[in-house]
Amino acid sequence: EAAVTQSPRNKVTVTGGNVTLSCRQTNSHNYMYWYRQDTGHGLRLIHYSYGAGNLQIGDVPDGYKATRTTQEDFFLLLELASPSQTSLYFCASSEFSNERLFFGHGTKLSVL
Amino acid sequence: QQKVQQSPESLIVPEGAMTSLNCTFSDSASQYFAWYRQHSGKAPKALMSIFSNGEKEEGRFTIHLNKASLHFSLHIRDSQPSDSALYLCAVSSNTGYQNFYFGKGTSLTVIP
User: Fold this and answer.
1) For residue B39, which phi and psi values (nearest 5 degrees)?
2) Which residues from chain A sit within 8 angstroms of residue B1, using beta carbons?
3) Residue A8, number of CB atoms within 10 A of its CB
4) ∠ CA(B10), CA(B86), CA(B49), 5° rounding?
5) 3-state SS of chain A: helix, strand, coil percent to 5?
6) Cβ proximity of A98 and B92 under 8 Å
7) Which of A38, A44, B32, B81 has a 20 to 30 A CA-CA distance from B102?
């Protein structure tokens, strides 16, 4: 079973603060994704990547940057956090496109 | 943009019952269809997926796809209390834009 590890598990910050969410997968999957999950909206794609150095924009990218530094590591950056970014964030990976996603355990972010 | 809708929003069934969950999508060119299960406080986990019209059975779970009617479903035979969870359907289009569009979920409770 693919292993996707996110850190931190919980994060509280203030409006305007900087936040970095980390994700590491240990199965050499090509694709990595960042989703946010909100009541009433389900899971929505923020950014994704199909390899080190690659970055693709998802459906809700505003206010987020992402960087894929290695095959294993994918980071989500909030440079000026806003209360609307309070959410549960999931990282996921898949070996190829149109294949099952393996999710991390999530990061709960609160922006006060 | 792909629209994915699930019904019902919530469902309560007795142990041993047959449970049916529904998902409709808007893009007839969709290629990949999947169900994920998310227990409370946990990460979504892939249950089953299908690429072509028809049925696929794995244990107590059956997925049925009808692309012409833009509909697919998940059926759980002999529902167990451990099946209580949020069920998410996901649809992926082969447009060169790698995204799985998720429904908002059906919350299933199986009563002993």
Assistant:
1) -75, 155
2) 59
3) 13
4) 115
5) 5, 50, 45
6) yes
7) B81
Burial class (CB in 10 A: 0-12, 13-18, 19+), A13: middle
Q: Please report the number of interchain residue pairs, chain A to chain B, with beta-carbon separation below 8 angstroms.
A: 49
Residues of A in contact with B97 (CB under 8 A): 56
Nearest CA in chain A to B92: A98
Token digits of residue A51: 């390899």
Q: How far is CA A69 from the centre of its chain?
A: 14
Tokens of B23: 């998902």
Which one-letter amino acid corresponds to residue B79? S
- Tens place of pLDDT for every residue, chain A, 112 residues? 669 999 999 999 999 999 999 999 998 899 999 999 998 888 999 999 999 999 999 889 999 999 999 999 999 999 999 999 999 999 999 988 778 899 999 999 999 9
> Which pair of tokens denotes residue B68?
């012409």
